User: Which sequence fits this backbone?
């Protein structure tokens, strides 16, 4: 069995809640801001639904048409899909996996920029992180006000902590560059 992608995990989890069609899944993922943790595109979502149906992790329960809209097939989770979801969540929680995000790659090459340019761009990233942290705080306040139990939104606290840790590290790094505690020698062009 192929390992479940993050989007496949999200689809199975949604269908664990209730049966729905792919467009509804997309809308729920966007509404819940899951697109911040899972790359969510309509085409990818439809492909994932088809693949999960082919693996018999989900099954179609009916097709409906509302007005001029295209037909929509509703899916439900199978027992095999519920088991695959449970196993993937278990292994994903206990096993660290390198995920290869872009930022560490460009950070490793920041020495190719002039000192002032690097500092300017790092400051802009800190500003962006501050904005994102504020959004996470707003989202958490909204969820708390609606009485959603915390196990359903653990990711918010994790993401906020991750953003804050990056912001704090970058702030310290900028201070070190500016104080020359971290010498900056951009690579010379040949």
Assistant:
């Amino acid at each position: 069995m192929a390992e479940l992608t993050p989007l496949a995990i999200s689809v199975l989890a949604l269908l664990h809640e209730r049966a729905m069609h792919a467009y509804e899944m997309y809308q729920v993922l966007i509404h819940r801001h899951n697109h911040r943790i899972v790359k969510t595109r309509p085409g990818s979502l439809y492909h994932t639904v088809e693949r999960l149906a082919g693996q018999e992790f989900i099954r179609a329960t009916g097709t409906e048409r509302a007005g001029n809209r295209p037909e929509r097939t509703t899916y439900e989770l199978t027992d095999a899909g519920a088991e695959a979801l449970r196993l993937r969540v278990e292994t994903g929680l206990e096993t660290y996996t390198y995920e290869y995000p872009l930022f560490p790659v460009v950070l490793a090459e920041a020495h190719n920029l002039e000192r002032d340019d690097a500092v300017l761009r790092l400051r802009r990233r800190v500003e962006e992180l501050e904005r994102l942290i504020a959004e996470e705080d707003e989202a958490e306040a909204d969820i708390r006000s609606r009485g959603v139990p915390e196990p359903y939104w653990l990711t918010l606290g994790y993401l906020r902590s991750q953003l804050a840790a990056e912001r704090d590290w970058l702030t310290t790094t900028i201070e070190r560059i500016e104080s020359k505690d971290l010498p900056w020698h951009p690579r010379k062009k040949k």
